[in-house]
Specification:
Blueprint lengths: L2 H10 L8 H17 L1 E4 L7 H15 L12 E5 L3 E2 L6 E2 L1 E4 L3 E5 H9 L7 H11 L16 H18 L14 H14 L1 H7 L1 H11 L12
Parallel strand pairs: 1-2, 2-6
Antiparallel strand pairs: 3-4, 5-6
Helix pairs in contact: 1-3, 2-3, 3-5, 5-7, 8-9
Length: about 230
Amino acid sequence: MPASWSQIIEHYHSFTKGYDPQELERFYTHLKVFAWEKCWIGARGLEVTEEMRVIISGIAARLSHNIDLDIYDRLSEVVIYPSHYVHSSRDAIIYGEAHHWGTVVLSWDAVTHGIKDPNDGHDTALHEFAHVIDVADGWFDGTPQLREGKDYEVWASVLGKAYAELKRAPQRGIMRAYGATNEAEFFAVATEAFFERGHSFKLDHPGLYDVLVWFYRQDPASWPPHRV
């Protein structure tokens, strides 16, 4: 691990202070593999710096380090815009998106905004990497590849119920209303809230929280406060 990377991680990813030595080593491994294996592309003249690569790779590793190392194999490139962007085919402002052919696009402003407020339950990079984990089995459907066949029944039951509740009352609770768009967005929004608002998430959605603890093999409600 280059010394400069360690300094970036310590400053921007203070959640790692709660990791034990074995978990921290897994986090470093996932971060390094992600940073070295992916193709990094700056859009609109943006120069992708070492700091950008380490920060974004750390966000990806935050999700994956207790799962399989190959969870991001389907992802080949990360495209970074300086700020939000607009597609010529639609009017919506885009802060990030994940594509099934192996590309994640991120607004650097959105990435840094997510880091500056690590407890608001809204982090664009976490959201998009949750989509990448979701599509690892080939489908954007809110159900990533699970460990055993029997796990899908529990997953469908718990997440299906929570998704239906959010659709009925999208302005209530701690999850963003955007999660009511479809099952894929629900999984990504739930992932944001799980990692950033673990204590409240556990109180509001105990069953869903337990399923995500099982999937990510992490327990955010037990972590110390994350500050940058």
